[in-house]
């Protein structure tokens, strides 16, 4: 398939630039084999069964956007991509002319960092203070570019899942944004089990696929861990006839990365797994996901999971019914279809 096969026209006003007042008030499009059902996210327990396993990505978003200027005075913006140590990070630096190795960047409130060099498109930075200290003092939440506004106080809480525990992401695992504590309690009371993976979502999740031939696309890398406890929970769920349900594409990629050879095993490291139609899924039976950008790797993933034609119709339905799109938007509940190679 080609990149252009995953294009669609989205009215600008359907891009959600703010979250709803209550997380569970988002709409939920249930995609069946032959029909669609329009619900709200609070209805999710109706779709779950005793013995199912929900797998969440427990990463937390860091305040990864920083502002400052070069020693020569030129303004710039830093987006930390990956924290490498207490004071070191790889980052994108946006400015009119790239800073040179050996020079300092002067950040707000007098903080500084040294440009050590380059690693591809990323800059190696060493901060004078711990990165945690710097981000807590002057960092901004790294909202996606399509939200098209400055971050606000509300984003500190709402661009974060209620179950996030492991700091390191620079983008939220957005399918998880719809859950609140009460809904989680309601789901547990049904006898549904919870498991957790950690995938620190990188800014590459927003990068467009530039090659028309999907085989030529170089997938960005993200760090993840799937531990022994989660593997055991998945094996027990499968043995007992329950479903493994990924909450979001990041949980999906984590599980499938840990099962690339077939059986799932504990895994820690980078993944560049690129899932397109024709992919054989080894672990996940159903998933919760948001609506994704045209021609994005995430749209390709859900099309592989539930079928290309089915996703095409689902997106047409969502647009016609005025669903809200992208990170602060509405969600879908998908099941794995037998004809995923369509």
UniProtKB/TrEMBL annotation:
GO molecular function, one term: S-adenosylmethionine:tRNA ribosyltransferase-isomerase activity
Gene Ontology cellular-component annotations: cytoplasm
Domain of life: Bacteria
Catalytic activity annotation: 7-aminomethyl-7-carbaguanosine(34) in tRNA + S-adenosyl-L-methionine = epoxyqueuosine(34) in tRNA + adenine + L-methionine + 2 H(+)
Its job: Transfers and isomerizes the ribose moiety from AdoMet to the 7-aminomethyl group of 7-deazaguanine (preQ1-tRNA) to give epoxyqueuosine (oQ-tRNA).
Main localization (coarse): cytoplasm
Compartments where located: Cytoplasm
UniProt name for this protein: S-adenosylmethionine:tRNA ribosyltransferase-isomerase
Keyword tags: Cytoplasm, Isomerase, Queuosine biosynthesis, S-adenosyl-L-methionine, Transferase
Known partners and oligomeric status: Monomer.
Regions that span the bilayer: none
Gene3D superfamilies according to UniProt: QueA-like (2.40.10.240)
EC number per UniProt: 2.4.99.17
Annotated pathway: tRNA modification; tRNA-queuosine biosynthesis
Gene from which the chain derives: queA
Organism in which the protein naturally occurs: Cycloclasticus zancles 78-ME
């Amino acid at each position: 398939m080609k990149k252009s096969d995953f294009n669609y026209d989205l009215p600008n006003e359907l891009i959600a630039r703010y979250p709803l007042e209550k997380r569970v008030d988002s709409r939920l499009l249930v995609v069946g084999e032959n029909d669609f059902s329009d619900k709200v996210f609070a209805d999710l327990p109706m779709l779950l069964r005793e013995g199912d396993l929900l797998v969440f990505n427990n990463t937390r978003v860091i305040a990864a956007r920083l502002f400052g200027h070069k020693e020569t005075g030129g303004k710039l913006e830093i987006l930390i991509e990956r924290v490498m140590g207490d004071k070191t990070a790889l980052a994108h630096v946006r400015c009119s002319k790239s800073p040179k190795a050996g020079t300092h960047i002067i950040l707000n409130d007098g903080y500084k960092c040294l440009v050590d060099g380059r690693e591809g498109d990323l800059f190696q930075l060493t901060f004078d203070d711990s990165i945690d200290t710097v981000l807590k003092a002057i960092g901004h939440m790294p909202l996606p570019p399509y939200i098209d506004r400055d971050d606000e106080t509300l984003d500190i809480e709402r661009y974060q899942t209620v179950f996030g525990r492991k700091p390191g992401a620079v983008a939220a695992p957005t399918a998880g944004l719809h859950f609140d504590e009460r809904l989680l309690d309601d789901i547990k009371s049904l006898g549904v089990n919870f498991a957790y993976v950690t995938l620190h979502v990188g800014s590459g999740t927003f990068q467009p696929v530039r090659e028309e031939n999907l085989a030529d696309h170089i997938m960005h890398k993200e760090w993840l861990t799937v531990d022994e406890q989660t593997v055991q929970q998945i094996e027990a769920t499968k043995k007992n006839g329950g479903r493994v349900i990924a909450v979001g594409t990041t949980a999906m990629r984590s599980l499938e990365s840990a099962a690339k050879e077939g059986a799932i095993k504990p895994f820690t490291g980078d993944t560049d797994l690129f899932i397109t139609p024709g992919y054989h899924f080894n672990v996940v039976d159903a998933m919760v996901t948001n609506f994704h950008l045209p021609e994005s790797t995430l749209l390709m993933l859900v099309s592989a999971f539930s079928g290309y034609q089915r996703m095409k119709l689902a997106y047409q339905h969502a647009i016609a019914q005025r669903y809200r799109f992208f990170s602060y938007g509405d969600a879908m509940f998908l099941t794995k279809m037998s004809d995923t190679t369509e």
